[in-house]
């Protein structure tokens, strides 16, 4: 087959990628060609627009380094990351809803005892975070591992200012106690714009969109026999809840970061100044595959 | 609107990009979101597959530099470049069909007199190229500008070996004579693989495809009042005509690179050894917009 025109080229490319040995690669390649060609066919780009598209993708790739992942920002801001997350987490009742991981997660954050203050050298309004981790059937999960990370009150994460502060802060790992409870101190995070000095920032501007995310605390929670939960809890009073640039907000993930007067806090700490208090009770979904494997092994 | 799940996220993103002030940016953004989400929804990528996709795009961008454009290779090998070309050149009868520009075109190639040998320091089987340039109604076009470029008999262009050869070769600009004719000498080009040591090469391998293009000579032909023609002429005996990796072959663009015995060639040159002869008569499409402008000015 040769002589391709706009009515035959798509079938020709589909025929060509059928040679893929791996079934999944063949399936993804065929779907990519169909949808990509349908997009091109709908917009009928001029040669100059095609060149602009090539240039946009090239600049997006070249903006990436070990501290910046512009293609993840593109996926996030086009709603692709949330769509992939949603399809991978069709959540049963009782389990906490998921949202995107984001670019600021760090593996092997330092472990702290329950009740620790993880704000390190960062100043801000004190925030007490409390909660529980349970099964979807409300049975407490003791010893669950909780990774937590969030921004400072200017919207910057520790990894964005590591040269200045020299250590991880507003980031830690905890384990729930025998009743599935956890609690720790930090500072209240702020809303922040995603990095927008690159191609994705230009795209957002051209689309008439702001680059902001509402204030939130990230959680990753793992327990044996359960699917690891990746989510955020958002501040109920934030102005960007309805327009989160990465479409990550869900009503069930919004809580009051309640203003508390000076005095004895819920964990017994004596506070000389007002602070905020966030409580969230998490539910983990059973990992049925892992359970079956455990049952077979037993 | 918040609380996006896999049934609502697409409408949410579409709603968001509606804020684009520029109509075309809004139209392209909306189409991109619809088709991209449809692709993701069809393949339901795992989190690991999504990461592999991000990594592929990132590596493709980072493979690009001033001598290599990996995203154009991706567009070419997925048939997108030919689709865009086809939609931009719905050719009327009498006009030569178009094909992709490719990555080896150079602006301002050296102009040579008709009959010149442009092979420079490159050795190979001599090739006489002759032909005419006419309107779609077969009227000869005198003074049309012809840019020509092609590979050597190992499949490499001059720009890929400029450090060694030190000058342009197998590349030139000519002007047709008063009867719309042109002729020049060079060497016969060979089939060649597109650069395949990057992400696109890995993709082709995974899709069970070879990276080869059939032997061809590139032409770009411009004349006042006509749309500039970008095309190739392919060698009729090439084994890759049916499987050109970038889908660029059209039957009307195939010609014999005819074997000729030693003796007097068509332009009067005495050849002591056998050579090849390629003839192609090109037809240019009228540029009605330009003509209307000329008529208004007259």
Beginning-to-end CA distance, first to last residue of chain A: 58 Å
Percent helix of chain A, as a range, is 25-40%
In terms of DSSP E residues, the strand content of chain A is: 15-25%
Tally of extended strands of chain A? 13
**Most extensive interface, residues per chain?**
A-B, 76 and 75 residues
* Strand line-up of the largest beta sheet of chain A: 3-2-7-8-9
Query: Which class of secondary structure composition applies to the elements of chain A?
Result: alpha+beta
Number of helical stretches of at least 4 residues of chain A: 8
The oligomeric state is homodimer
- Strand-and-helix sequence of chain A, N→C? HHHHHEEHEEEHEEEEEEEEH
Q: Class of the largest domain in chain A, according to the CATH hierarchy?
A: Mainly Beta
Domain count of chain A: the total is 2
Provide mean pLDDT of chain A, rounded.
Answer: 94
How would you characterize the overall build of this protein?
Two copies of one chain form a homodimer. The first copy, chain A, has 298 residues and is an alpha+beta fold. Chain A has two domains: 1-44; 95-193 and 208-297, Protocatechuate 3,4-Dioxygenase, subunit A (Sandwich). The first copy, chain A, contains eight helices and 13 strands. In chain A, helix 1 (9-17) packs antiparallel against helix 2 (23-43). Chain A is globular and about 80 Å long. The relative contact order of chain A is 0.15. The interface between A and B is large, with 76 and 75 residues.
């Amino acid at each position: 087959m040769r002589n391709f025109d706009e009515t035959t080229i798509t079938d020709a490319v589909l025929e060509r990628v059928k040679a893929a040995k791996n079934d999944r690669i063949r399936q993804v390649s065929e779907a990519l060609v169909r949808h990509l060609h349908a997009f091109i066919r709908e917009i009928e780009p001029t040669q100059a627009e095609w060149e602009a598209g090539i240039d946009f993708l090239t600049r997006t790739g070249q903006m990436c380094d070990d501290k910046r992942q512009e293609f993840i920002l593109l996926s996030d801001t086009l709603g692709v990351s949330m769509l992939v997350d949603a399809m991978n987490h069709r959540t049963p009742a009782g389990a906490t809803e998921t949202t995107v991981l984001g670019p600021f997660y760090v593996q092997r954050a330092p472990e702290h005892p329950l009740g620790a203050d993880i704000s390190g050298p960062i100043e801000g309004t004190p925030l007490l975070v409390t909660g529980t981790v349970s099964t979807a059937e409300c049975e407490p999960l003791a010893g669950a591992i909780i990774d937590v990370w969030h921004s400072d009150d200017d919207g910057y994460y520790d990894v964005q200012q590591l040269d200045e502060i020299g250590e991880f802060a507003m980031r830690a790992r905890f384990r729930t106690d025998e009743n599935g409870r956890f609690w720790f101190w930090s500072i209240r995070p702020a809303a922040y714009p995603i990095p927008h000095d690159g191609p994705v920032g230009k795209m957002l501007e051209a689309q008439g969109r702001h680059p902001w995310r509402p204030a939130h605390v990230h959680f990753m929670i793992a327990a044996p026999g359960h699917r690891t939960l990746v989510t955020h809890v958002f501040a109920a009073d934030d102005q960007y809840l309805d327009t989160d640039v990465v479409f990550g907000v869900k009503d069930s993930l919004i809580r009051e970061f309640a203003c508390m007067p000076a005095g004895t806090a819920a964990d017994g700490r004596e506070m000389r100044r007002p602070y905020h208090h966030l409580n969230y009770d998490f539910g983990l979904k059973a990992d049925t595959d892992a359970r079956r494997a455990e049952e077979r092994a037993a």
